[in-house]
Amino acid sequence: MKLGRAAVALLLLAPCAVRAVEPISLGLALAGVLTGYISYPRLYCLFAECCGRKRSLSREALQKDLDNKLFGQHLAKKVIVNAVSGFLSNPKPKKPLTLSLHGWTGTGKNFVSKIIAENIYEGGLNSGYVHLFVATLHFPHASNITLYKDQLQMWIRGNVSACARSIFIFDEMDKMHAGLIDAIKPFLDYYDVVDEVSYQKAIFIFLSNAGAERITDVALDFWKSGKQREEIKLKDMEPALAVSVFNNKNSGFWHSSLIDRNLIDYFVPFLPLEYKHLKMCIRVEMESRGYNVDEDIVNKVAEEMTFFPKEERVFSDKGCKTVFTKLDYYLDD
């Protein structure tokens, strides 16, 4: 029988509990000893992940992570830093923090959810308190939507009961069956308690390609007007983005009560990336692999990418998503 480090630590705390224990009684002895984390939480949490031992979020560290790893997304950076740091510094939030990230593939939505998780829990996406749901994987069949609703409520209720500061990430919201996400509406609303559980300290993050066309239209209009993309304000995007997502029949948010009841705190637009941003991604990837940055390779990889619209060729149609695999070709030379 193998014991985890936490179990070993707890056995050391109470040697009398397992002294001369008969094999048949070992399970019962361990069960009693493992409850020692209630009496010795600090020692227990040195060996096992504990909800109460989450990282103290540093606004400066989160800002630095986003500045060093996320390119071309001035709106997303500002919203994420202010929303997440403000929420976590509030000891008594009125409702869970709910962020909906929108934009084309490769613009950084998944990357940002990863950065948020890593700045709150040491294990990041691998933490037992961070939960990822992928629409096409976890909710594939429209015929099972009633079952999925029940399961989703059960999963969220159970995890928040175990850790109030749980993080839930829903990927591919544009592929989720309409109506399914409304099952969690009570958990996102302004209730102190729902069925004896408080959800006010939880974080919900939704990732979607829905609304990307609207975001591109605004970015392209600014480009055609000779304005810098950094001049785009959240007010130029957010209201129209919310309406676009709400009315998109191919979105999991189609006519959703989450939007209708204003339970999404921020609709965060991720702008399409330009040529210069791809080069930034390539440089960072080369450095992360231990290579010196070779601008000749950077240019070759960037030039292989495809851009849209067809005539203007301003924005990368895949963002930074495929630059890493294309980089492999040149680094193997």
Automatic annotation (TrEMBL):
GO terms for molecular function: ATP binding; ATP hydrolysis activity; ATP-dependent protein folding chaperone; identical protein binding; kinesin binding; misfolded protein binding. ATP binds at residues 103-110. It comes from the Eukaryota. It is a peripheral membrane protein. InterPro entries: ClpA/B, P-loop_NTPase, TOR1A_C, Torsin, Torsin_1/2. GO terms for biological process: cell adhesion; ERAD pathway; intermediate filament cytoskeleton organization; neuron projection development; nuclear membrane organization; positive regulation of synaptic vesicle endocytosis; protein deneddylation; protein localization to nucleus. It catalyses: ATP + H2O = ADP + phosphate + H(+). GO terms for cellular component: cytoplasmic vesicle membrane; endoplasmic reticulum lumen; endoplasmic reticulum membrane; growth cone; nuclear membrane; synaptic vesicle. The keyword Endoplasmic reticulum applies. It is found in: Cell projection, Growth cone; Cytoplasmic vesicle membrane; Endoplasmic reticulum lumen; Nucleus membrane. Keywords: ATP-binding, Cell projection, Cytoplasmic vesicle, Endoplasmic reticulum, Glycoprotein, Hydrolase, Membrane, Nucleotide-binding, Nucleus, Signal, Synapse. Residues 273-330 form the Torsin-1A C-terminal domain. It holds the Pfam family TOR1A_C. The keyword Nucleus applies. PANTHER family: TORSIN, TORSIN-1A. Homohexamer. Interacts with TOR1B; the interaction may be specific of neural tissues. Interacts (ATP-bound) with TOR1AIP1 and TOR1AIP2; the interactions induce ATPase activity. Interacts with KLHL14; preferentially when ATP-free. Interacts with KLC1 (via TPR repeats); the interaction associates TOR1A with the kinesin oligomeric complex. Interacts with COPS4; the interaction associates TOR1A with the CSN complex. Interacts with SNAPIN; the interaction is direct and associates SNAPIN with the CSN complex. Interacts with STON2. This is Torsin.
